[in-house]
Amino acid sequence: MARFRVPHTLVLLFGMIVFAFCLTFLLPKGEFEREGRQVVPGSYKPIDESAQEEEHAADEHAEAAPEETGGWRKLLIPVHFLMDKVVAPTFQPLAPIFSAIPRGFEGAQDIIFFVFLIGGAFGVLRATGAIDALIGVLLPRLGRSPALFIGGGLLIFAAGSSTIGMAEEYLPFVPILLALAIGLGFDAVTAIGVMCCGYGVGYGIATINPFTVLIAQRVAELQPTSGWGYRLAISVVFLALAFHHVWRYAKRVKADPAASLVADIEPDPHLTAKEHPPLTRRHVAILVVTLVALVVLVYGLAEVSGWHWYVKEMGALFIGLAIVLMLISWMSPDKAAKEFCIGAAELTTTALLIGFARSILIVLEDGQVIDTIVHSIAAPLGSAGPAMASVGMFAVQSICNLFIPSGSGQAYVTMPIMAPLADLVGVQRQVAVLAYQFGDGFTNILVPTNAVLVGILGLARIPYDRWLRFILPFMIKVWIAGSVLLAVAVWIGYE
């Protein structure tokens, strides 16, 4: 019997587009009244379809001429309206499914182009060798002390993911982590625990991650980077949980090597720690310039600055950063251009997922059923109270990440529903974004559909079932702590 494999994320998103299209026939149309960006509770009302059908009938009659009928009109499917009663089958063209995709790319074009620009800038940064040199210097120094190795390593990986969204960039550091951990008397699970727990915490809190929190806040119509103080404060809680979990396991393995989850698996002899470039003054200058750019980014996005920055300004900043890094590193323009293109190309899949994810919203908006979905979900969550509703959002986002492991794609799929839902159940939209971050970020180190996790485990020769035995207890702690902190955010009026 063939082994079941989870389809590619693009396949899942296209399936969701088709599913959304079907929902437009199965669900009644409806809408809320809105005051600015806020949904008015209790204002949901069905839309009178009879008047709309008369208007559409006139339009369709005008389009019936052969010269105005497109090829897609030949693709017809019967659809039954299953509401309070069954009515006659209606025929609708499949064209909206396919036309929604380019419209989705059009609607998300600013974010898509920003993703390419930031990917190109990071490609130039990576080519300077400064990041490799920094981590290559820090990790061996931390490796002199087991507690510093675990604590410092967690902090490094969390910081990289929380600020500039590092993920795939960690793969080259698997060998050096394995060498350090085994040299200290630990095992491969300890090494990957340091990397992945830090990576998960970084994405979960995402202080200024441009691929997750900034996109989610844009969809929720919030000020970019707003609320970063609370996210930074609670990072201490999750880092402490990560340190306790990894350190406890590491001590047990050091005391009894047979207790290792991979005691019967030899590390790959070819995966030896590679030499990293020495940290030079030029590298330090590159790192300082990059840090300054991130500080300017945060200030430019902050409401108090009055600069009113967002996607265009951020894109311009990263283009300027790439040029400055090229000059400081004495990189030739040709090489810088090549590295910029490589960095941008690596994020092509992310950009495609954003466009496809946006298409789902296009279909639901055209069908005028997105408010109906929000209204239906609001009833059970609203009766549970705002605090429990935020926990429910956390659970929904965690499940969604199994099927949509792209953080930016998940933001475009879920936040258009979660933002107005938050208005209805008495939850601040910032809390809804935080629930999305928790659900997306923390489960990155759990779900087998995350390509980065699978790649890291493959390099370290850790079977997924062994990893699950290690990481599941940590995830339970994270789910509990995250639920409590979401409730606290509701109580303090987190904005």
Walk across the major sheet and give the strand order.
1-4
Low-confidence stretches: 63-92
The sequence of SSEs as H and E is HEEEEHEEHHHHHHHHHHHHHHHHHH
For the CA atoms, what is the radius of gyration? 25 Å
Mean pLDDT rating: 82
**What's the overall geometry?**
globular
Please count the beta strands (DSSP E, at least 2 residues each).
Answer: 6
Distance between the termini: 52 Å
Strand content: under 5%
Number of helices, where a helix is a run of at least 4 consecutive DSSP H or I residues = 20
Report what the structure shows.
The structure is a single chain. By secondary structure, the protein is mainly α. It has a domain at 107-349. The chain is built from 20 helices and six strands. It has helices at 9-26, 49-62, 95-107, 109-127, 130-142, 146-164, 174-183, 188-205, 213-219, 228-255, 281-301, 311-328, 333-345, 348-366, 370-383, 386-403, 407-425, 429-442, 451-460, 464-491; strands spanning 30-31, 34-35, 38-39, 45-46, 76-79, 90-93. Strand 2 (34-35) and strand 3 form a beta hairpin. Helix 5 packs across helix 11 and helix 6 (146-164) packs antiparallel against helix 10. The termini are far apart.
Question: Main attributes?
Answer:
495 residues, mainly alpha, two-stranded antiparallel sheet, 67% helix, globular
List the helices and strands and how they pair.
Blueprint: H1 9-26, E1 30-31, E2 34-35, E3 38-39, E4 45-46, H2 49-62, E5 76-79, E6 90-93, H3 95-107, H4 109-127, H5 130-142, H6 146-164, H7 174-183, H8 188-205, H9 213-219, H10 228-255, H11 281-301, H12 311-328, H13 333-345, H14 348-366, H15 370-383, H16 386-403, H17 407-425, H18 429-442, H19 451-460, H20 464-491
Antiparallel strand pairs: 1-4, 2-3, 5-6
Helix pairs in contact: 1-14, 3-14, 4-12, 4-13, 4-14, 5-6, 5-11, 6-8, 6-10, 7-8, 8-10, 8-18, 8-19, 9-17, 10-20, 11-12, 14-17, 15-17, 16-17, 16-18, 16-20, 17-18, 18-20
